[in-house]
Amino acid sequence: MLSRFIYAYGNTLYIQMWSDRLRVFDGKTGKVFDEKPQIAWRFGERKQKQILAFGNGAEKFRNVNAVTISNPFSHPRSIISDYKAIQPLLRHAIAQVVKTGVLMPRIQVILHPMEKVEGGITEVEKKALCEMAYHAGVKSAFVYWGETLEEAQLTRAHDTFGKA
């Protein structure tokens, strides 16, 4: 009962992932993040990756020396290419559609790999996708594959799919 009450004030996000596109749709507000899944980064003073830009904004760093643009969804066999890079990318995409702050709403997500799912998704891929979502600040994650969900279905997603 309590979790149903919390989700009444939370958000359900539908995250679709392609090797060249990341789309995040908020079923509550209708806001959408739909950009290339790119991260522009360089090594900082302590040899740590310093992120400069995400999504389409990374393009402006395309020909800048010492800056690398990577796509964490670009592996030929799996939707996951760079586990650690997907986490800040998801965090950024979620922040574009959900108001974040001290009183951040409870967020649940439906993760939908749109390609590279021939034969289904393995348990390892499901676990990796959910873990990446949890590290991005999500409270509940569900991995789905199949036909694209309609926007009307997403307004009732927490009742339809439940918790991961």
UniProtKB/TrEMBL annotation:
<dbReference type="Pfam" id="PF06723">
    <property type="entry name" value="MreB_Mbl"/>
</dbReference>
<protein>
    <submittedName>
        <fullName>Rod shape-determining protein</fullName>
    </submittedName>
</protein>
<dbReference type="InterPro" id="IPR056546">
    <property type="entry name" value="MreB_MamK-like"/>
</dbReference>
